Amino acid sequence: MPVDDQDGTTPGSAWTSRALAELTARGYRAGEARTAVIELLGAEGGCLEADDVAARLRLQDKRAGTASVYRALALLSELGLLHKVALADGPARFELVLPDGEHHHHIVCDGCGQTVAFSDPSLERAVHAISDQTSFLIEAHDITLHGICEDCQAG
Predict the structure, then answer these.
(1) Mean pLDDT for the chain?
(2) What is the pLDDT of residues 7-53, one digit of tens each?
(3) pLDDT tens digits along 58-69
(4) What is the DSSP string of 21-34?
(5) 104-155, what's its fold?
(6) Cα(13)–Cα(8) distance, rounded to whole angstroms?
(7) Which fold has domain 1-98?
(8) Residue from 42, 44, 47, 52 nearest 20 by CA
(9) E-assigned strands of 3-155?
């Protein structure tokens, strides 16, 4: 994950601090399971399925059952700290909502399911241009491109 030039932190660590502060400010307890989920998402940068979060926490010997993980993800989404991205052929993934609004999109391999995140400023400008051309105020968007990764092409 890239380092933020301003203070030497990564976007994920800044998100972790913001998420924990937001829970406290809204009167939620940052218990062991919620804290573990937040710290994992911040460290990984998001783009994880709920079951991946639960499995990685088990590997780290963190006390967070699957139901607790799902509840934490739902709450973080409700608070606007996560964005749930539904991919066509798989479970939803959870993305960090960064304070500056920066986000990315995905390319999914239809052969093996590998998912790669990408950002493209010209694509973002095109989305905003569509908003200007229509009567819609676009509040959010998810773009998922499908193709075949290099490994699947070779195999």
Answers:
(1) 85
(2) 455 667 889 999 999 999 999 988 999 999 999 999 988 788 999 99
(3) 999 998 899 999
(4) HHHHHTT----HHH
(5) Dna Ligase; domain 1 (3.30.1490)
(6) 10
(7) Arc Repressor Mutant, subunit A (1.10.10)
(8) 42
(9) 48-49, 82-85, 93-96, 105-109, 115-118, 144-147
